[in-house]
Amino acid sequence: MHTVTYLQAINEALREEMDRDERVFIMGEDVGWNLLGATGGLKDRFGTERVRNTPIAEAGFVGAGAGAAMVGMRPVVDMLIAPFVYPAFDQIVSIIAKSTYLYGGQAKMPIVLRAPMLYGAGNAAQHSDRPYPTFMTIPGLKLIAPASPYDAKGMLKAAIRDDDPVICFEDWTLTGLRNEIPDEDYVIELGKAAVKREGSDITIVALAGAVPHALAAGEQLAGEGISAEVIDLRSIVPLDRDTILASVEKTGRLVVADPAHIMGSVASEISAIVAQEGFWSLRAPIIRVATPHTHIPFSATLERPLYPTTEKIVNAAKRAMA
Amino acid sequence: MAITVSETDMLEMYRRMTRIRQFEETTQALLLKGELYGSFHTSSGQEASIVGSCMALRTDDYMVGTHRSHGHPIGKGAKIDRLLAELMGKETGINQGKGGSMHLSDFGVGSLGETSIVGSGLPVATGAALGSKMQGNDRVTLCFFGDGASSQGTFHESLNMASLWNLPVIYVCENNGFGELTPTHEAVSVPDIASRAAGYGMPGIVVDGQDVLAVYEVVSEAVRRARAGEGPTLVETKTFRFDNHSIGMPVETPGHAEMLVHWRGNRCPIDLFDRALKEFGCDEVTLREIDAQVADEVSAAVEFGRTSPEPPPEAAFTHLYTNPIRIDS
Ligand SMILES: Cc1ncc(C[n+]2csc(CCOP(=O)(O)OP(=O)(O)O)c2C)c(N)n1
């Protein structure tokens, strides 16, 4: 075992997969220069062909990733910051998500897009997006949001080995986390949520940066005699509805904590699934704790209160218990 | 001609051009009768541009097409029975009925699909070329796109990357004078799109898109450069489409009808090549035999499509992923 941070876990996943499979390569803006800290040492180890700095042309290089994937490469495209996917949106939707289907299975699309989310850091409305709900509406993509160094490494490795397109939404509010992880190779199957804390009174499903808050809330609620089961969703598509429904069947109550905007969110989708499939287990209304439907302001005073916090999750759980 | 073309190759060019034309005329008739459905952008009139380009490639080279897509896979060597079945939405279609008219393909002959979001194929072709380069093989990729597509950012982003990375890719702009109803000169700020190549440090060449041998010569040189590691080329074929933007569209491009008379009468690529072949000494009988063989092929393809099964309803949910997941319905 050894201890790593979230970014070191990502770096290890990239290095090990590039060592294992020469078809894997990285491209994106400044990847060779390690601008954001996840690609350190890779250029020296693999060279500039496989750690390829690109022009600032997201549609161009994301689409080029798709073309390379179609002819047998396994690109990992670094989006630098999640909202920079927007200039590449058509390539992601029209080409990456749809080519396997449109051509009746002739095209494989083994591509990974890494989309670091840098919210909560005074970057204002254009740089603070958590855009996974947008992509959840598009069939053909797989979406993951690892919330620990252990998961970040194992899920990114699984994503790189997957024959389908995967967008990895990395939550950089978690970069301070450290985990012990195995020294040997491991992968985490996509589409499996993790029950992080068992409980019997209420289910709290959380994803990405909301997970540590949900765990802290579980701890706090225990002190007040409420037994919360905390589930880290980990994977958005495929969505592990079985784990969620089984938990709600046991607890009868559900809070969903999601750092993205509440409108059309993962929290909304989970709520709808539970309302439809688990209605008769429910003993209280489902409560979503997500970001209100407003832009992310620059001022820290304004920004800080918008996201899910431990306190908000605790309060939601208490309301559900009342 | 600086390069010599064998008689066999010239006859194969003629065959493929004729195949495209007959395929288009037949399927268009089926569309108007209601046997086919969907948007339908034909390649008639552009056969020399397509076939001259594709014949400069090997079967294992890659090609990316556009919404005006029936001709591109045929030019690349695809058999037409599964293409026709695809237009009928049948299970035996090349895409198993998932793609239809704007997405004909045949990965078996390097036809990596046709994308109907204008300009979206350029980065894909660029990436396929990047893949070949990284794999260390000598395959090249040819990307067709229209004059309209040259205004998309993807065109500029792709040419910049291809030149920067010295990729084995040939960009063939089929300039048919219009993007839907808008004349090219109202949408593009330069008279020759090929002149844009200078901005990316690659050769840009204008060629008569109705002359299959001229296209073949220019593209062959671009392919040679690409294979030799000398980088990308932009080729602009000046051509014309012989049908409405899309078959059955109620509106005609202003002036299109008059221009059509001229182009069909004097600039038909198949007529021009027919004449050239005879000047090279090819006899009439050989060419008419090819016409007849292609007609039989097209009839057989229609029959194949008609007798093929419809896809089963559950096929709407297959091929969404290579490694399938549970799908919410
Ligand atoms: C992004 C996008 N915008 C608009 C359209 C609608 N559209 C379909 S074909 C076309 C014209 C394309 O012109 P050009 O690239 O010259 O190709 P041509 O049809 O002349 O072969 C347009 C605007 C589209 N399919 N995609």
TrEMBL record, chain A:
Organism: freshwater metagenome
Keywords annotated in UniProt: Oxidoreductase, Thiamine pyrophosphate
Gene3D superfamilies named among the record's database cross-references: 3.40.50.920, 3.40.50.970
InterPro entries in the record: THDP-binding (IPR029061), Transketo_C/PFOR_II (IPR009014), Transketolase-like_Pyr-bd (IPR005475), Transketolase_C (IPR033248)
Transketolase-like pyrimidine-binding domain mapped to chain residues: 4-177
NCBIfam families: PRK09212.1 (NF006667)
Required cofactor(s): thiamine diphosphate
Name of the protein in question: Unannotated protein
PANTHER family from the UniProt entry: PYRUVATE DEHYDROGENASE E1 COMPONENT BETA SUBUNIT, PYRUVATE DEHYDROGENASE E1 COMPONENT SUBUNIT BETA
GO MF: oxidoreductase activity
From TrEMBL, chain B:
Gene3D superfamilies reported for this sequence: 3.40.50.970
Transmembrane segments: none
PANTHER family for this protein: PYRUVATE DEHYDROGENASE E1 COMPONENT SUBUNIT ALPHA, PYRUVATE DEHYDROGENASE E1 COMPONENT, ALPHA SUBUNIT BACTERIAL AND ORGANELLAR
Entry keywords, A to Z: Oxidoreductase, Thiamine pyrophosphate
Listed GO biological process terms: pyruvate decarboxylation to acetyl-CoA
Boundaries of every Dehydrogenase E1 component domain copy: 15-313
CDD domains with a match to the protein in the record: TPP_E1_PDC_ADC_BCADC
Cofactor section: thiamine diphosphate
GO molecular function: pyruvate dehydrogenase (acetyl-transferring) activity
Organism for this UniProt entry: freshwater metagenome
UniProt protein name: Unannotated protein
